[in-house]
Amino acid sequence: MKKKKVKLRDLKPNSEEQHSHDDGHNHSGNSSKIKAYIPAIISFTMLIIGIGLDYFDVTVFKDWIRIIWYGIAYLPVGLPVVKEGWESIKKGDVFTEFFLMSIATIGAFIIGEYPEGVAVMLFYAVGELFQNAAVNRAKGNIKALLDVRPNEALVYRNNDYMSVSPETVEIGEKVQVRVGEKIPLDGILLSDKGSFNTAALTGESKPDTIAKGEKVFAGSINMDGVIEIETTKEFKDSSIARILDMVQNATARKSKTELFIRKFARIYTPIVVFLAIGVTFIPYLFVDDYVFRDWLYRALIFLVISCPCALVISIPLGYFGGLGAASKNGILFKGASFLDTMTKINHLVMDKTGTVTKGVFKIKAVKAIGWEEAEFMKYLMAMEAQSTHPIAKAILEYKTDDRDFNASDVKEIAGKGLKGMVNGKTVLVGNKALMTANHIEVVKETDTIVESIVLVAIDEKFAGYVVIADELKDDAKETISALHKVGVKHIMMLSGDKDSITQQVASELHIENAKGGLLPEDKLNEVDILKQNPENKIAFIGDGINDAPVLAASDVGIAMGGLGSDVAIETADVIIQTDQPSKVVKAIKISRSTRKIVWQNIILAFGVKVIVLILGAGGLATMWEAVFADVGVALLAILNAVRLQRKKWS
Questions:
Q1: Average pLDDT for residues 444-461, to the nearest whole number?
Q2: What angle do CA 558, 563, 566 make, to 5 degrees?
Q3: Which residues form the P-type ATPase A domain (predicted)?
Q4: Which residues on neighbouring strands pair with residue 157, listed in sequence order?
Q5: Buried b (16+ CB within 10 A) or exposed e, 72-98
Q6: What is the rounded CA–CA span in Å between residue 521 and residue 198?
């Protein structure tokens, strides 16, 4: 069964069929939307007038006049469906809902049930309009992303800025972006600073402040002043282009439920057609007072009820709504199949650095012995200013009001640290081995510190130490607690960092099972051990680079990819654009809500249809009940699916 309104290609901006399957009322403003309802309004008006004339038994409204009246009422809504059914038959696809509705309503005319024939087709047409509106609303979150794609770039060429298509801009060119405009390509900020709205990309409404030399991403909106950037990628390779391509293709990866329903519909529909034929003729062999017209009427009711459009439209719509809701929240699923798998996750394995920690060294503690802390730090910072080590960078972020301390004669002692002169004093900065080599006695409390530690001696006396540690992300602790609340009982941390540091972070987060000092293949082995139990459904959260093998081996690989990680987009099944681990909890909640709504629709559609099918075959249901069982159930299922687009996940 084919439902053209939900085809993926409708989303693609360059598709030549973008407008041909949306009934022409999605892209041309309010006038087009109103225009789409005109045929239904004409048919409805004529049907009501006809029913009124029948009710009051108007003399002139008889015979051919009555037939012609209802025939004209049928054409605005019926002719497009009949034509669609005929086109499908010519392509070899006979058993579509268009064929079923055409046969049922034309059959109603043949047996003289004109009002019911018009009513069935009218309600079907109205149902289609509502379906289109629901699908278009579900597409809205993803189409909003399409609107983020910049369509022009102001490039500096020939001593002037000129407006060109972003596709023509090369790597290394200088681009100017004015206030309120979108960044056209990924690049490096040349201006001193900039403030950017990345809400459409990450789901975060708070503006992001970027300093000179830092990365900016295509699709971000410049909020403050004219800026300049130097492009680092071609448009086709920019983060927004890659994300758009992934989101657009997400619906191509169908869930098992979707695939089953589509296969089921193709088998179910022809079976129902042959059953309807049986309902018409088989009773002739067993019923004494057989009346062909009565049994044909029952068969037509059977056909109307049997149309599986409620299933075929509402189930993909449910998954589509889930994918759109996730993307709106900065969570990108690579397919509906991963929405399904995410609902079954009971084991969560996570990396440490860059996943629950920021991956950036920060000063955790300063202990000066025999010195004022500020003066002690000036000696240390003067020395570290001569180093390019990440720890030196963290120390230099310490806030001081005076930088009149300068280091000279600085020598790096391999594997130990630095030695030099600062304001006439000999300063040693490094590890315990450096202190021992220079006969400096270190306080014993440093032996119990598991984090990175920088020891300092001034004029051959121990002057203190600085503890450097990777910071936990702001939402790391609440994430672990929330994961337990949503039913993920088993959480494991695997890290390449020192085991002592890994255990400390795990303890802070209340993670009982943690292992450090692991290579990528060691992490893979740990996940393989978990996978030996078929009941374990495993999600792995990593940075998408070092953890590529584990991401691929897990049931769901989740990358803290951010906007700039190409490897994350390539490797993982789910990408958290904001690098917030708490979004994993939201991803689970969205997946479960989607699954719940899909199954509600399946049960609703099957339940009502089976009941009315039995009643119809037994002569206890009329065309009006059949209309409810088909169009009514479809509308209820659609309204249920649309709830995903309005739902909020805390």
A1: 91
A2: 70
A3: 149-248
A4: 160
A5: ebbbbbbebbbebbeebeeeeeebbbb
A6: 36
Can you state the angle between helices 582-617 and 309-328, rounded to 10 degrees?
A: 170
71-90 residue pLDDT tens: 999 999 999 999 998 998 89
Catalytic (active-site) positions: 351
Angle of helix 476-485 versus helix 499-509 axis, rounded to 10: 60
For 377, what's the count of Cα atoms within 13 Å in the CB-facing half-sphere?
19
pLDDT, tens digit, 9 for 90 and up, residues 353-412: 888 988 778 898 999 999 999 999 999 999 998 887 778 888 988 887 666 788 999 998
- Choose between 624 and 50: higher pLDDT: 50
Q: How far apart are CA 593 and CA 647, in angstroms?
A: 9
Is residue 635 within a helix (H) or strand (E), and if so which, with residue range? helix 633-646
What are the backbone angles phi and psi of residue 418, rounded to the nearest 5°?
A: -125, 150
- H helix count then E strand count, the chain: 21, 22
Q: What share of the chain is helix, strand, coil (3-state, %, to 5)?
A: 50, 15, 30
The crossing angle, in degrees rounded to 10, of helices 63-90 and 114-148 is 40
Q: Where is average pLDDT lowest: 142-151, 569-578, 603-612? A: 142-151
CA distance 12 to 250: 12
Handedness of CA 391, 396, 399, 401 (dihedral sign): positive
553: nearest Cα among 570, 567, 571: 571
Q: Name the residue among 94, 120, 126, 96 with its Cα closest to residue 107.
A: 120
Asked if residue 581 lies in contact with residue 479, where contact means CB atoms within 8 angstroms, the answer is yes
In this model, does residue 305 exceed pLDDT 60?
yes
CB-neighbour burial class of residue 251 (10 A; exposed 0-12, middle 13-18, buried 19+): buried
